[in-house]
Structures are given as C-alpha cells and as structure tokens.
Design a protein that fits this description.
The structure holds two protein chains of two kinds. Chain A is α/β, with parallel strands linked by helices. Chain A has helices spanning 50-57, 80-85, 102-112, 117-130, 147-159, 177-194, 205-211, 229-234, 239-246; strands at residues 12-21, 24-34, 39-43, 65-70, 73-74, 87-90, 165-169, 197-202, 214-219, 222-227. By secondary structure, chain B is of the alpha/beta class. Helix content of chain B is 59%, strand content 9%. In chain B, helix 2 (31-46) links the parallel strand 1 (23-26) and strand 2. Chain B is elongated and about 85 Å long. The termini of chain B are far apart. Classes of the chains: A alpha/beta, B alpha/beta. Chain A binds chain B through residues 55, 58, 60, 81-85, 89, 91-93, 95-101, 108-109, 112, 141-147, 157, and chain B through 387-388, 390-398, 401, 405-406, 409-410, 412, 484-487, 489-493. Chain B: It is found in: Cell membrane. Chain B: In the N-terminal section; belongs to the binding-protein-dependent transport system permease family. Belongs to the binding-protein-dependent transport system permease family. Chain B: Keywords: Membrane, Signal, Transmembrane, Transmembrane helix, Transport. Chain B: It is a multi-pass membrane protein.
C-alpha cells in the first residue's frame, strides 16, 4: 500500500484572482478555498475558466490580479518547481511523452531527483497495483496503450513522488463510457484511500457528485455556486444552475 | 587547457602563415595562367628552391587578395588588369616602371614583361564575318541583331564589355555571360555570333576565327608579368632571381603554341612547361584510384568539419529561436540572408579572414549549413503539442532537463532532417572549394571545364553525386537509429 504522505496535505487558496487572455476574462475575481485533505469538483461548460484555475494553482499561469496562496503563503516563482513536485497533475489525454515508454514517463522526474532504478521500479509496481494496470504495459510506448491505460499511467506519473495533492483536469474526458465508469470507481477509491487534497475538473455533474461532496459551478470565469449537489438542486443561486443540472440526463440514482 | 584551445584556434585561423618554408605560386583558372605557374615552379625547382604551385584558384580577385594577404607569394598577371582593375590612380596606358612604383606601397613587386602581350580581342567565325563584311569592331555597329557571348569576367570589368559598348556605340541587346572555355563551342555551334578572346588563345586558328581589328584602340596592353610579395626580396631572393630571368623569354607565338598543346592536344601543363624550359617533367605518379581517394578525403574533410561546427551552433540557435519569438525572427532572417549569397561570392568573402585553401571553404559551407539546421530545430520544437510541453513543466522538471529529456528528443526527427539537408547541399557546394584551393571533387571539374574534357568533369561529378546519395542513405540510417521508437509508431486510437 502507498507510503504515508511526507507532509500534511496541501491547502490552496485563491484571493480575488483574475486572468485575462487576449482581452477575454478567463477567470474573473474568483476567491476560493481548498482546505487540506478536501476533495472538490470544479464544474462548468467548456470555456468557463475551470482549467485555467487549476493551472493558476500550479504556477503554469500567473494571475493578472489577486493572489494564489499555497499552505497560507503566496505562490512565487522560486517556489513553483518544489510545489509542482508535491502536486500530481493529470490532463485529459494524459500528456504522456511519446518518445518514452510508460515506465520511462514514470521515471522522468524520480530519475532527475536521483532515485535508483530499483526504487523507481518498485514504486511503479506498487502504483500499477493501485491503479489496476495490467502486467507488461509499463514497457510499452504511449502510442501502444489504450485510452484507459494511458490515463492510468498518467495518474501513476502524478503519484510517483507520493504528492500531497492531486489536480486532475478532465482526467476521464476522452474515454468511452464503459472504461470511464470503471475508472470513476477506481479513482474515487484511490482518493478515499490516499486522503490527499484533490481538485478534479469535469463538465459532467454526475461525475462531479460521484467524486466530491463539494461542487463549484463556474460560468464565464466566475463562480456561480459553491456547495453540495443537493444545494445546487434545491436552492439554485440563479436559473443557470438549474439549467445546467437539468441538462445532464445521465445523473445516477446512486449519487448523493 | 586554455593554451591548448588557443593553439588549436590559432592553427585553425592561421593555417598558412605559420609555415614559411616553400615559396607558394598561384595561378588563375585558365590554361595560360596554369602553364606560366608551372614554368615558374619548374624553373625554381631546377634551382633547388622549395616551391609549390596552387593551380586554378579562380579569378583575378581571388589571386590578388591571396597575394595581398600573403597566402601566396607570386602569380602570373597582366598589366592591363593592373591598370584597369586592381590599381586606382594609374593611367590606363601606364608602363611597367609606373606600375612598379604604384605597387611598392602595397608590398607587391612586378617583373618585366615575360615577352608577350595577351590582350583582349573580339572574334567571329571567318565565314560569318566575311558574309556580313565585318573586319573591324566598329563594323559591328551596323548589325544590331548579332548575339554576343562574353566571359563572365569580361562582362563585368570596366575595361571589358561596358567600356567597349560605349566606345564603339554598339547597339546589340543579346549579350550573355559564358564560361570562356565554353564560348568557342557556342560560337562553333552558331548559338552566338561573337565572343571575347585572348590574343594568345590556341583556338583562334583551330576554329578558323577572324580577330576583329580594334580600330579605335580600345583594348589596353596586357603584357604578361609575375606579381610577387616584396617580402621575397628578403625571404627568398634566389626565387626572385629565377622569376626575373623568365622576363622576355616567352613570345606570343610560343605562348599560343603551348596553349594549343594543352587545350587541343591534351598534353599536361607540367609536360608543356618542362619541355619549354628543357627540364625533365615531374613523375606523374598518382593513378585514378589514389587521386580519387585523396579527393574523397579532401571533400569529406570540407563537408564534415563544416557540418559538425554548424550543428554545434545551429541547434542552440534553433532552441533560442523557439524560446523567444523576437530573437527567433532575427536569427532566422540572418541565416536566411546568408543563404542568398551566391556560393562563389561566399567563398571569396572568406579569403580575407581565412586565406585560401581548406579553411575559407569550410567557413563558407558552415555558414550555408546554418539555415536548414536552425529552421528545422525551431520547427521541431514549436511543433511539440502545448499540452505535452506543459505536462513536462507541471511535473516539476527544471527548464534544462525539460529541453534535454523531453523537447529535443521529440524534435529529433526534424533536427536530423535539417542536418541531412545541410549535408547533401554541402556535398554539392563543396565542389566550388576547388576555386579557392580547397581541393576535393571540384578540382577535376574545374580543370575539366577549362580543358573541355568531359572525362575529367565526370571524374569529379560522378563521385560527388555518389557521395551525395551515400550521405542521404547514411542519414536515413542515423535518423532511424536516433529517432526514439515511440515517435515512429502511430497511436492506436
């Protein structure tokens, strides 16, 4: 089973953060708190600013206004490398490097940090068990993997250093429904098991509710509503919330 | 370590000035000049003076600049070229003592006339000339439809076509530049009607040409002389004695005869020169195989050194270009401009910096190789999908590691394609190196064009083509070997 976490889970905070691309507000005066150890789903239609928000938390983008805080301290350029190593980041297509095998992808950062070959292999096998990755897949190149395998490897890459937080940007967005369903179960299981701070971006409200109690609904760069699915259903902050919830027909009975 | 690097640099930058030993004679890229160079070399050898002869070093500007920079010690020249091309502030009809005084401040000396005047003239085929009733250059003005083919040098120089056209008010519009060795053939096959020629050309009787009378005395005297570095008065006085003793010994008849032996009877310049001096010629030992081997080595040296140096500079330049858009524009524009410089000009530009021989040729090829490699490195890097670039950053890898472990491997295929393009172009362009004394496959091509000898041209052109194909093949292997396997397989879905 996974190593115990090195430090305490990471807490993230956005304080009146705005980010503009070519004059369009991608994130508009957003203030949000992600307490250590919590799981949050960021939801909204495409272009609502939810991916940009994740990238701001990792220092992949810098706010035009406002401040990003990690563990209570402002995020600065000098801190980002160290921060990124304590955060696992997984994107829609996995973002695996095509010139390296799955194991090569996993080994990239640990190798740079001086891990031995042995230690890297052991950790990879441990994570393969956690993510139910079949034997032998680690030796293959990304182009030889199925979509589900690619996402599993990407998640493993994010978990190699046993980070304090996981940021997932539409991690299941490119998968077919059956694989997606299977991975939703596994991911939820993994989140519960690891007890890390998790922020997952999705556009599917059922998936959001499955992963997290707390749902943050965004539109045009602003937070529309922040609460449980029940709150969104019963006490919508504006008509758009109802419209968004109703539009999702795949809502499952099993969700809270 | 630093001293080693300094010495290495010095030996790269000053390849010739360190070795003072043999006297170096140069000659231009036409038969008469090569014969005169050989006569001087054999005469010096007879007097036990160590001497080398760098044959066929291109045109006047290359020889003159090589002499000025001390890359050669002496070469045959003509007084008319000095008065009209090389020296400012001398009258067009200056005599040799006047020229001697004008050359002295430049550190250059001049012998007395070797005994003949090789002036420019205009020639037509006898048939055509008598049919049109043309005997003098001024008669040409009555026939504006005539087609002229002039050597490239004659087209450009002030004492060539531009001045001639003005003096005689010639109306002809169809005037084109040709290699001198090809112009006789063009005339014989009626593609053109009149050409420039030298009064000692062997072909005049052979092709039944009529030399038109210069009735307005336009063409200046072109007395053959040797130019030499005045430093020889101290360094090699014995050689100067030999050179000066050649004065007055070669008349127009003798020169035309020697030219004919080489150009029309296929004798070697060395043999003709030795025969003239009455000395035994060199033993011409090198067979085809050893000639080919030597030229291959020379050619490979030019291509490989320039290519390796270009990769070392161009890949980093490509990386910078991909990093900063503005810097990228500047770098790309600069290497693009380099590419537009005509190859021969590029080789000549390098002479003031590197002298003549291998190194200026390598420098020119190096500059030509930059653009394809810079451009392909840049294209390979900016072609990486942004989400992969960001994934590498999000992992927490420092910039340098991202470049080495992720970005360059992903751009490798494109970079190698750029190197391959540069290599193949270099194999072809390197043949021009022969014109500045770099040897290689260009040597037989240059000589072959001059002597109108197809066999000799093929002796250079065929190996060059084969080498280009080999380079192409080798690089395809290297590409397969260096391109990561994961980059070669197609995604499953």
């Amino acid at each position: 089973m996974p190593n115990p976490s090195n430090g305490s889970p990471e807490a993230f905070e956005l304080d009146h953060v705005s980010k503009r691309y070519d004059g369009v507000m991608a994130v508009d005066e957003v203030s949000l708190n992600f307490p250590a150890g919590s799981t949050t789903a960021l939801i909204g239609s495409s272009g609502s600013g939810k991916s940009t928000l994740l990238r701001l938390l990792l220092g992949l983008e810098w706010p035009d206004q406002g401040q990003v805080k990690v563990d209570g301290r402002p995020l600065e350029n000098g801190r980002v490398l160290e921060l990124r190593r304590r955060v696992g980041y997984v994107i829609q297509d996995g973002g695996l490097f095509p010139h390296l095998t799955a194991l090569g992808n996993l080994a990239l950062l640990p190798h740079h940090l001086g891990w031995s070959r042995e230690r890297i292999r052991e950790r990879a096998e441990e994570l393969a068990a956690l993510t139910h990755l079949p034997q032998g897949v680690l030796q293959r190149y990304p182009a030889e993997l199925s979509g589900g395998q690619r996402q599993r490897v990407a998640l493993m890459r994010g978990l190699m250093l046993n980070p304090d937080a996981l940021l997932l940007d539409e991690p299941l967005g490119a998968l077919d429904p059956i694989v997606r369903h299977e991975l939703q179960d596994e991911l939820k299981h993994i989140f519960e098991q690891l007890g890390k701070t998790v922020i997952v971006v999705t556009h599917d409200i059922a998936e959001a509710a499955w992963f997290a109690d707390r749902i943050v609904l965004m539109r045009h760069g602003k937070v529309v509503q922040d609460g449980r699915l029940e709150d969104l259903r019963r006490h919508p902050a504006e008509p758009f919330v109802t419209q968004f919830v109703e539009a999702q027909r795949t809502l499952r009975e099993s969700s809270p | 370590m630093k001293r080693w690097i300094a010495m290495l640099l010095a030996s790269l930058l000053l390849p010739t000035s360190l070795s003072a030993a043999p006297v170096r004679i140069g000659s231009k890229q036409f038969t008469e000049s090569v014969i005169l160079g050989e006569i001087a070399r054999l005469a010096a050898r007879q007097a036990d003076i160590p001497v080398t002869h760098q044959r066929e070093l291109g045109g006047t500007s290359i020889l003159w600049s090589a002499l000025e920079h001390g890359d050669i010690d002496a070469y045959p020249e003509y007084t008319g070229t000095l008065t009209h091309e090389l020296l400012k502030n001398v009258p067009p009809d200056a005599d040799i003592p006047t020229l001697r005084a004008a050359l002295r401040p430049l550190g250059i000396g001049i012998t007395d006339s070797l005994g003949f005047d090789d002036t420019y003239a205009i020639g037509m085929s006898e048939d055509r000339a008598s049919q049109l009733g043309i005997a003098r250059i001024s008669d040409l003005a009555q026939h504006p439809a005539l087609r002229f083919g002039f050597s490239n040098e004659f087209m450009d120089r002030t004492d060539g076509w531009p001045g001639l056209r003005q003096r005689y008010a010639l109306p002809q519009m169809q005037v084109r530049g040709l290699d001198h060795a090809l112009s006789y053939r063009a005339l014989a096959s009626h593609v053109i009607d009149a050409i420039d020629l030298y009064s000692t050309d062997a072909e005049i009787p052979y092709y039944h040409l009529r030399v038109l009378e210069d009735d307005k005395h336009y063409f200046p005297h072109y007395e053959a002389v040797f130019l030499y570095r005045l430093a020889l008065e101290k360094d090699a006085p014995a050689f100067l004695d030999v050179l000066k003793k050649l004065s007055g010994r070669i008349d127009e008849e003798a020169m035309r005869h020697m030219n004919a032996l080489v150009k029309l009877h296929g004798e070697k310049e060395t043999a003709v020169a030795a025969n003239f001096l009455g000395v035994p010629p060199d033993v011409d030992g090198a067979g085809l195989a050893s000639r080919l081997l030597q030229r291959t080595l020379e050619h490979l040296k030019l291509v490989l050194i320039s290519l390796i140096a270009a990769v070392l500079l161009a890949v980093p330049l490509g990386v910078f270009s991909a990093r900063s858009k503005r810097l990228g524009h500047v770098i790309m524009a600069a290497s693009g401009v380099l590419q537009t410089i005509p190859s021969l000009a590029m080789f000549v530009f390098m002479i003031p910096f590197f002298g003549i021989g291998t190194w200026p040729a390598i420098a020119a090829l190096f500059l030509y190789s930059l653009l394809p490699i810079v451009r392909n490195t840049y294209a390979g890097l900016v072609g990486i999908p942004p989400d992969l670039r960001e994934s590498a950053a999000a992992l927490g890898l420092p910039r340098g590691v991202r470049l080495r472990r992720v970005e360059l491997p992903m751009a490798m295929r494109s970079i190698l394609a750029g190197v391959k393009t540069a290599a193949v172009i270099n194999v072809g362009t390197a043949t021009l190196g022969a014109l500045i004394g770099a040897g290689g496959y260009g040597q037989p091509i240059v000589t072959g064009i001059r002597l109108d000898d197809i066999g000799l041209i093929l002796e250079g052109a065929v190996p060059a083509a084969v080498l280009a194909l080999l380079v192409q093949g080798v690089f395809e292997g290297v590409e397969r070997w260096l391109t990561p396997r994961g980059m070669r397989i197609e995604a499953r879905d």
